[in-house]
């Protein structure tokens, strides 16, 4: 299973996405609250994906992605945002973010996210 770390100050912000990921069945979920916890758990767990709640704090989310890449250059990231796709791409250019997610991602976003992860990360780890 893929290790997926969900990073949100308020876990309920990513609750629907977490439900969708659990139903999808290809991942084991871990939770982090705050940027320091996210960096620490990324180092400790070596997840294949970190999902960051960036809603309303996109600049901080991009800075966190940069820190995560210093800890593990192979980690994939996704960020929730209200930015349109072009604006998000411009702001996050060079960070290699797997994809942006809608501000309130649900089950459909979970499946799309996992499909995208599989397309870049390859088959499920043992």
Summarize the structure.
This protein is of the alpha/beta class and 126 residues long. It has helices spanning 15-24, 35-45, 58-71, 85-91, 107-121, and strands spanning 2-7, 27-32, 49-53, 76-80, 99-101. Helix 2 (35-45) runs parallel beside helix 3.
Structural class: alpha/beta
The strands making up the biggest β-sheet line up spatially as 2-1-3-4-5
Q: What would the CATH topology be?
A: Rossmann fold
CATH class, anyone?
Alpha Beta
Describe the main β-sheet briefly.
5 strands, parallel
Count of spatially separate domains: 1
In terms of DSSP E residues, the strand content is 15-25%
Order of helices and strands: EHEHEHEHEH
Name the poorly predicted regions: none
User: What is the average per-residue confidence, as pLDDT, rounded to a whole number?
Assistant: 93
Overall morphology: globular
Distance between the ends = 7 Å
By CATH, the architecture is named: 3-Layer(aba) Sandwich
Under CATH, the homologous superfamily reads: Response regulator
Number of strands: 5
What Rg do the Cα atoms give? 13 Å
Number of helical segments with 4 or more residues: 5
The helix content, as a percent range, equals 40-55%
């Amino acid at each position: 299973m893929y290790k997926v770390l969900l990073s949100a100050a308020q876990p309920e912000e990513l609750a629907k996405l977490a439900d969708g990921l659990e139903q999808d069945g290809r991942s084991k979920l871990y939770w982090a609250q705050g940027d320091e916890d996210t960096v620490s758990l990324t180092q400790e767990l070596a997840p294949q994906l970190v999902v960051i709640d960036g809603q309303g704090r996109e600049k901080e989310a991009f800075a966190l992605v940069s820190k995560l890449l210093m800890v593990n250059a192979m980690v994939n990231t996704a960020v929730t945002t209200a930015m349109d796709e072009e604006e998000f791409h411009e702001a996050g250019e060079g960070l290699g973010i797997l994809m942006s997610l809608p501000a309130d991602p649900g089950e459909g976003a979970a499946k799309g996210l996992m499909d995208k992860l599989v397309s870049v990360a390859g088959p499920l780890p043992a």
